[in-house]
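re: ur msg from earlier - yeah i can do the fe (ii) ion complex, just paste it... oh wait u already did. ok heres what im feeding in:
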Amino acid sequence: MSIKSIDPRITRENLSEEPDQNPIKELNHWQTYEVFHQTKKGDHHIHVGSLHAPNAEMALILAKEQYARRYECVNIWVVKSANIFSSDYDDEDIFETTPEKMYREAGGYKVMEKINKYKKERKGV
Amino acid sequence: MYGGGYIFEESKNGKSEAEDTEKLERFESKIAAGEKIEPSDWMPAEYRKQLIRMIEQHAHSEIIGALPEGTWITRAPGFRRKLALMAKVQDEVGHAQLLYSAAETLGKPREDMINDLITGKSKYSNVFNYPAVTWADTAIIAWLIDAGAIINQVANSKGSYGPYCRALERICVEESFHLKYGHDNVVFLATGTPKQREMVQEALIRWWPPIMHFFGPSDKISVHTETLMRWKVKMASNDDMRQKFLDMYVPKIWELGLTIPDPLLKKNETTGQWVYTEPDWQEFKKVINGDGPCNKERLAVRRNAEEKGEWVRRALQRKDERYTVPLA
Ligand SMILES: [Fe+2]
Ligand SMILES: [Fe+2]
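and the outut:
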């Protein structure tokens, strides 16, 4: 039996009702790329998601369709997912640090008090 | 589009496997604190399984959901409507892509998901097993089915799995265009000629039962999902979402003077809850298990697209490539 549809284009295809036993093989939908987006010239590119593509050129075309259909986008990067190395959430403690790190912050250096004290003492001379 | 009435499997209280209690505790406390779970984090096997199942069903629903409306692109009344409908259908297919990627991060390759869809092993939202008989049906779908989808997707976007939440945030922005477009389309017909009014009224009558089925079986008869709720996989009960939908949209349907085919439908002002005729859950079961008006057609069309595109995909495939799970 072939499919009868209210859409004549589907009926004309003579589609079989039975599921075929010919599964899609691995990688038939290609490998994965990660997509990065720049919304304004001068901004950083940010990660927006991933997609499947056979090569970098196709990945760019598909990234435009998938992630830049609306809203501003001026530039796209694509990177093979396999080429991204990331730290592990299990190692979050690598970002832990000594609680007192004022020595490497601008706010850790206050000199006005000393200057004022010095000026006052000099006037006294 | 989409997203309601996911079919979950009976959960074996979440601790079925001999899993590390310490890891489980940490996992649960992260979720309780509102933190997101990322693909490389430890997670219970049951969490992974149910999430794959849910995100995959959601992806299939987007891609199958594009079919009843897609049929009408060539016959859309006028250029502006045609442009909008093409945009909406493209969005839906794009939603499927985002969701397949999110499901892949949990370890199921895309090819396996598509195989499970086209062989009839995986489910998708039941509403798409019904035909869009007239142009007015597409208006009702774009307004009310997408409205239901938004309620579900907004809830799910606050769930615990990072990649799914991020995909949903993108999706929800586009869904609001679908909803506005659908409402505009319904209002146009409902305030138009007597023939147009009749068309939209008939479409509403056809679509009301599937709409009531959309959020899935009543909590009284659906499988228990306490663990899935605690893990923020399922974010609201089916009945709660249905109530929310009725509360938001019944008044908007009535203000257009349209009749909803349920004589019992009314809001109980003291409880704030909507009263309605219990949807026919036998019919729901029958259709979701393959015996609806369009199940065979939907899968055949999807299979056909997959087969026709196969040589192109193969021609571009490179022998030395290896699959990598998407990152996030
Ligand atoms: Fe969608
Ligand atoms: Fe939609």
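cool cool. The longest helix of chain B spans residues 162-190. ping me if u need the other ligands too
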